[in-house]
What does this fold into?
Amino acid sequence: MQPLTPRRILGICALLGVVLFVAVVISLRLGAYPMSFRAILTSLYESVMGRGDQIPTDYQMVIFGLRLPRIAFGIIVGGALAVSGAGFQALLRNPLADPYVLGVSSGAALGAIVSLIFAPHVPLAMQGAAFAGAGITILAVYFLGRRGGQIDSSTLLLAGIISASFLSAIIMFLMTTLSGRDLRGMAFWLMGDLQTPPQLPLGFLFFVSLAAIGAIYTTASDLNLILTGEQEARHLGVNVARVKLVVYLSASLLTGLAVSVSGAIGYVGLLVPHVMRMLFGSDYRILIPASALGGAIAIVAADTLARTVASPTELPVGAMTAIVGAPVFIYLLRRRVG
Amino acid sequence: MSARGASLEGAGRGGNAPPESSDVRLHVEQASYAYAVTDRGAPKFALGPVSFKASRHEIISILGPNASGKSTLLKLLAGVFKPISGFVRVDSFDASELEPKARAQKVALVQQDRKLLFPLRVWEFVLQGRYPYGRRLRFESEEDCLMAGNALAQVGATDLRDRWMEQLSGGEKQRVILARALAQQPALLLLDEPTQHLDIGGKLELLRRLRRLADENRYTVVVVTHELNLAAEFSDRILLLHRGKALACGPPAEVYQREILEPVFDAPLDVEIAPSGRPRVMLREVNEGPWGPRQ
It folds into this structure.
């Protein structure tokens, strides 16, 4: 019997942090402009020590102007998606839940596009609309996925997939009315893409995501009990309704933020929590921080591949995650049925 | 106390006098419940007024055919439902008024096991029973581990500690679920058909264990069950429900009367008293008389 201790959680987070750092450095190295690891590490060190002026101007531009911001957005998006996936899995008591599969990402994308059409210059309108789109979609999917007052796992997934295709159809319709815009950019964004940086300060996104992840984390031990059985959890004194509300709002916010930054990147919310469960166990007190870091690692890696596989052309990062994620989804689905 | 502690299975302990008030753990007085009014009209009573008391060391079995209000009564006792009349008091607190965690420190409910979504170790599962004693985001203290260990020992499952929940047999799983309830250190232990998926040996073992827990560890135990004979053997008192009404409440030998049981269960039953003084129920010839094949 080895109960989970804060020390163990910190240890695992430190380990994942190192992996993330390595992924970031490799991602910084790869690209059209050649740089050595040594040069990258030196530049990073100088910058951290506050001697940014000693870094050569071209490195300055490539690392801090181009590659690092994109990586940073990727880290936020990956962490947000993975934690919202873990949250939805607990909320819906469905191990296959994921913001993309459930149509929540499509709902957020629709919200973002509607705000682009009707309020293109209002600050935060896109994020707010994406949040609303995500929240409304998950509610709709939740009620469509119920049968006789009970949530039915397969019905829920079907409801999500059908909602996603319905919402995508509306998005397509709206896009055809958008004239003079870059349709390829839009199509890329819909697939999930980190090429176009959002018009938002990085710090703002970071702290809002961190707050939402933190909110879910405060319910971690309640989620453990809810996953074992909702009624049992209630008998053990868990305020199930309050926990569900917190997770519902936070996970929708995280999905909305992620989609407003990068479009609908699929399967990260499904894949990362599953891998983390296999590595570190199902306890949500470790699963949430591990998923946040794991999601960041996954997106940084996927985006690096997306940038380099077909260089000089870039693939959307969502294509990379789907190529890996869809087969794993099928595998998990088959294993559950069999 | 001495006579009770001595007999493991409570044999020879028929005819219990009603418990003195100081010792009363569970006090149910005229408690009734009705589910929400349907659009068709008047509310349907799920459970008419029920009254009984239970003290430490006692096992009360709730018997009755399906849809007789057993589960509703159990939910009233667990404080999930608030009675529309009367009261349910545990250690003189109203069960439904208690704050959820405080209630979970007094009342533990053992339900039928369901499939787990994600794999869980036995000790992780049992530690969940310590939830009511912790704060938000809590990490288990040494005391929690000690209590969980004790709970596992009480059900004789110490050696299962590091196994995965889904690798356990039905009987082992039931013991671990019981251990989680014991880790709550409750005064009142409620069990909803705990023997349902067990074979006869497993059923006997579980009830023996409950008897021991009541005798030695001073739990008050309320069991909802369909096992007429096992209930007669191990219970101090039987509460018989029929169509939402409490038909009888008393020692097994008093409640187990052919004229009471037959109409309730709609089956031809014979009752005989075993040498221990406990009644036994047997199914009579089913193909004759009023219970013969009906066209």
Q: What stands out?
A: The two ends of chain A are 31 Å apart (CA to CA).
